[in-house]
Amino acid sequence: MINIVLFGKPGAGKGTQAEFLKEKYKLTHISTGDVFRYNLKNDTPLGKEARVYMDAGDLVPDELTTKMLIDEVNKHPETNGILFDGYPRTISQAEALDAFLPTIGSKVAATIALEADDEILVTRLLERGKTSGRIDDQDEDKIRNRYQEYNEKTAPLMGYYKEQGKFYAVNGIGSIQEITERLTAVIDNL
Ligand code: AMP
């Protein structure tokens, strides 16, 4: 299994790039944001619990998120590898992933960050909010709150993965194809 963590601020293009990478490397794409939104839409017990955090642009508590993530991974026992999009987002989640993957004989191969300037991303998200229907993309205060969550809780993961020698960063500004090429250059060299 080759497991890749796609890392980056909201709006950096993780979801867009994941669509290309999953085809190219035959990976299972797990977006925790997408799984939460599916549960919200279907008003499941998980959706009911997650809604208040998501609508505010806050992170959903670790325990709930990690349980959901492990359930998702376990749905794909035969996979070539997993492309994690939006998980882990806290040190505690990264530790949980590092504890869980060995139980299925696996590990994180690399974490690749898509880097982009905050102001470009805020504009991108507000634009996306006009068509995505996502409440958390429509209000600049909520978007800024998501960046604050990122800076406080998610940014420390860079150091966590650097210490493990698994952190790579690519410039997230450019055409979709250019960015895909930067990502594949990293993955092909692993
Ligand atoms: P995303 O689509 O990745 O931007 O995620 C949308 C929202 O889902 C986030 O703002 C959080 O409320 C929630 N979420 C997604 N992934 C996680 C995670 N790994 N930890 C906590 N909350 C998450």
Automatic annotation (TrEMBL):
ATP binds at residues 11-16, 128, 174. PROSITE patterns: ADENYLATE_KINASE. Its main location: cytoplasm. Coiled coil: none annotated. GO terms for cellular component: cytoplasm. GO terms for biological process: AMP salvage. InterPro entries: Adenylat/UMP-CMP_kin, Adenylat_kinase_CS, P-loop_NTPase. Gene3D superfamilies: P-loop containing nucleotide triphosphate hydrolases. It is found in: Cytoplasm. Keywords: ATP-binding, Cytoplasm, Kinase, Nucleotide biosynthesis, Nucleotide-binding, Transferase. Residues 31-60 are annotated as: NMP. AMP binds at residues 32, 37, 58-60, 86-89, 93, 134, 146. CDD domains: ADK. One of its GO terms (molecular function) is ATP binding. The keyword Transport does not apply. It catalyses: AMP + ATP = 2 ADP. Its EC number is 2.7.4.3. Catalyzes the reversible transfer of the terminal phosphate group between ATP and AMP. Plays an important role in cellular energy homeostasis and in adenine nucleotide metabolism. Consists of three domains, a large central CORE domain and two small peripheral domains, NMPbind and LID, which undergo movements during catalysis. The LID domain closes over the site of phosphoryl transfer upon ATP binding. Assembling and dissambling the active center during each catalytic cycle provides an effective means to prevent ATP hydrolysis. Monomer. Belongs to the adenylate kinase family. This is Adenylate kinase. The lineage of its organism: Bacteria, Pseudomonadati, Bacteroidota, Flavobacteriia, Flavobacteriales.
